[in-house]
Amino acid sequence: MRFLAQRTDDAAAQLTLVAAEAAALTPHTGRCQVQALDNSLPRWRYVQQFTASDVIVLPYDPPRYAESTSGIFVESIVFGTMPIVTANTWMAYELSKYQLTDLVLSLDEWRQPDIAARLLSCARQPQLWQRLETMRQHYLHQHGEQAYAAAMRQMWAISNGQRDTAAVQSQEGAQ
């Protein structure tokens, strides 16, 4: 995020970057505001920060995250916080399923002089928020408490000798 904190354009001056103290981002006049958070937050504060944020930037390394998931990404979807991610990552693939490729940036785009304006533009597009809400609803259904409990019941049944996964799935449908 250092590249974003160093931008001096009008768009950058409209942003507040929230990062852990360990990031050592320094605020400067005419640049993004910087809010440093404790390196370790209690869960309630973490959730509070997520719900107060409009956008979360996740400039992840593509080779490392090409097939790896990101808990922070999933949390951003569930909390309704717009994620901006790097191309060629699992997160970019997930966003593409919901026609949210405007939220996917190449490594070069992260360092462009207009990065702050690009972030603001995304945050101001109602159609992106609508698509993100659709994704959020699907994620809540797919990854929510009921889906997790059903998956755990299925694993429990299989681990206790019920190898017929179709029977386990039909039992799930009956519950």
Model description:
- The protein has eleven helices and five strands; from the N terminus they run ααββαβααβαβααααα.
- Helix 6 links the parallel strand 4 and strand 5.
- The model has no long low-confidence stretch (mean pLDDT 87).
**Alpha-carbon distance between the termini?**
47 Å
- Under CATH at level 1, the class of the largest domain stands as Alpha Beta
Shape: globular
Number of domains: 2
The largest sheet, given as strand count, sense and whether it forms a barrel, is: 3 strands, parallel
CATH topology of the largest domain: Rossmann fold
**What is the H-and-E element order?**
HHEEHEHHEHEHHHHH
Number of helices: 11
Q: Specify the helix fraction band.
A: 40-55%
Characteristics:
3-stranded parallel sheet, Rossmann fold, 2 domains, 175 residues, single chain, alpha/beta, globular, two-stranded parallel ribbon
Could you give a short description of this structure?
This protein has 175 residues and is of the alpha/beta class. 54% of the residues lie in helices and 12% in strands. Strands 3-4-5 form a three-stranded parallel sheet. The protein has a two-stranded parallel ribbon with strand order 1-2.
Topology:
Elements: H1 2-5, H2 10-13, E1 16-20, E2 33-37, H3 43-52, E3 55-58, H4 62-65, H5 71-79, E4 82-86, H6 90-96, E5 104-105, H7 107-110, H8 115-123, H9 126-143, H10 145-159, H11 165-174
Parallel strand pairs: 1-2, 3-4, 4-5
Helix pairs in contact: 5-9, 9-10, 10-11
